[in-house]
């Protein structure tokens, strides 16, 4: 059996419609586009939030949310250490100070003890990221934040159906940010949505969104083409006859697939944000987003079911460590990470069984040379990041395929 690492969820029909929509000169003429507002509002309704605002990138949703909070210059914004590195630049360029909070050992949960220790009178915001759809102990986290009058912003980019105590993530904080990039359950090639029930915050965000420049369609088209390439490369015969043999041949040198997938290929200390970041979300993307909202939930329910089954069957394996999950919560399993001392060795073992796995692409903020002067510290995350490998999990994967993956991992014996 041949098992690719991922599957693109956007249909060929939707790819074609979006391509034509991006070329249509009649689109994107209004600063407050009705179709973009419809998409953002529909997205917010998925989380019982009253307002949604779409931006060209999720990080710009974060940027405009920080701006709308009117924080004092020099206020501290806390963030977890595995993230898109540019989020540090976003915090800096809003005139604020980034503070990195560690994760628990062998886990993607925030370390509440480290959180408490790093709070100062200047701490005003925590951006909490639900990595790979794993739920956290929200009661404990909110107790700490409420006690210190800290605003919670949620990054739910990887957690569309994650819940804690029967409540969806994305509904615990003042606002929640969602990415719409490659492989996300709701993907519009790039872009992001901020959802909130705060009327004043929503009004500020809508004003800022309307005042952006015209959509950067060339950038969206480039990302569309990237999706098409991935969709073709991961399809049956192309993957089995061309891509998989190449991955095996070059396994000692490089994972070219991951290098191509990674959008943030370098990290720098920005002095300003590129002009392309200050552009509007396009009408064509909004139409695609509306179609994706109709379809994503059934696929994510399958992913959750398969993920929990794989977790249960692999939990006793001695060759890997599974990151801790909250059994009483609903975990999304957007990806399925395992921890192993030599991820490359396990990856090669799986490739021999015709199973394609993938390395971690998120930056480890504490190790980025551009941010060394901040002296960030997160030793637990440092160790976890170095041991991550992702097993295939997606709505189209069969129970038989997941069992093959499980058996191959159990058979693995570290050298």
Please, could you describe this protein's structure?
It is a single chain. This protein has 415 residues and is of the alpha/beta class. It has 2 domains: 12-216, 3-Layer(aba) Sandwich (Aspartate Aminotransferase, domain 2); 221-274 and 297-411, Aspartate Aminotransferase, domain 1 (Alpha-Beta Complex). The chain has helices at 12-23, 34-45, 58-68, 86-93, 112-118, 138-147, 199-210, 217-233, 236-249, 256-261, 283-314, 343-352, 379-385, 399-411; strands at residues 51-55, 76-79, 82-83, 97-100, 123-129, 151-155, 163-164, 167-168, 175-179, 192-196, 336-339, 358-359, 363-364, 388-391. The strands form 4 sheets. It has a 7-stranded mixed β-sheet, with helices on both faces. A hairpin with a 2-residue loop joins strand 7 and strand 8 (167-168). Helix 1 (12-23) packs antiparallel against helix 8.
Please describe the structure with a list of short key phrases separated by commas or semicolons:
single chain, 415 residues, alpha/beta, Aspartate Aminotransferase, domain 2, Aspartate Aminotransferase, domain 1, 2 domains, seven-stranded mixed beta sheet, three-stranded antiparallel beta sheet, 14 helices, globular
């Amino acid at each position: 059996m041949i098992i690719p690492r991922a599957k693109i969820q956007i249909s060929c029909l939707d790819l074609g419609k979006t391509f034509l929509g991006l070329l249509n000169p009649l689109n994107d003429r209004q600063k407050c586009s009705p179709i973009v507002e419809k998409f953002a509002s529909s997205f917010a309704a998925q989380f019982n939030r009253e307002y949604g605002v779409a931006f060209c990138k999720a990080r710009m949703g974060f940027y405009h949310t920080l701006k709308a909070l009117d924080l004092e210059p020099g206020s501290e914004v806390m963030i977890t250490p595995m993230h898109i590195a540019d989020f540090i630049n976003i915090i800096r360029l809003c005139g604020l100070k980034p503070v990195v909070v560690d994760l628990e050992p062998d886990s993607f949960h925030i370390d509440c003890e480290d959180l408490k220790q790093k709070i100062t009178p200047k701490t005003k915001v925590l951006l909490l990221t639900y990595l790979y759809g794993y739920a956290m102990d929200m009661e404990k986290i909110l107790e700490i934040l409420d006690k210190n009058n800290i605003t919670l912003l949620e990054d739910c980019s990887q957690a569309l159906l994650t819940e804690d105590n029967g409540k969806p993530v994305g509904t615990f904080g003042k606002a929640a940010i969602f990415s719409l990039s490659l492989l996300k359950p709701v993907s519009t090639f790039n872009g992001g949505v901020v959802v909130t029930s705060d009327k004043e915050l929503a009004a500020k965000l809508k004003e800022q969104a309307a005042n952006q420049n015209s959509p950067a369609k060339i950038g969206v088209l480039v990302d569309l083409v990237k999706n098409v390439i991935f969709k073709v490369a991961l399809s049956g015969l192309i993957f089995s006859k061309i891509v998989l043999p190449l991955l095996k041949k070059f396994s000692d040198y490089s994972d070219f697939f991951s290098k191509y997938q990674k959008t943030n290929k370098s990290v720098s200390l920005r002095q300003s944000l590129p002009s392309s970041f200050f552009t509007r979300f396009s009408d064509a993307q909004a139409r695609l987003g509306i179609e994706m909202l109709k379809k994503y939930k059934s696929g994510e329910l399958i992913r959750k079911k398969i993920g929990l089954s794989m977790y249960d069957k692999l939990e006793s394996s001695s060759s890997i460590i599974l990151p801790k999950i909250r059994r009483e919560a609903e975990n999304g399993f957007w990806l399925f990470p395992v921890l192993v001392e030599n991820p490359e060795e396990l990856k090669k073992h799986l490739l021999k069984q015709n199973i394609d796995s993938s390395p971690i692409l998120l930056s480890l903020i504490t190790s980025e040379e551009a941010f060394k002067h901040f002296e960030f510290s997160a030793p637990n995350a440092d160790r976890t990041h170095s041991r991550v490998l992702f097993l295939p999990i997606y709505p189209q994967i069969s129970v038989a395929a997941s069992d093959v993956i499980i058996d191959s991992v159990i058979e693995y014996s570290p050298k």
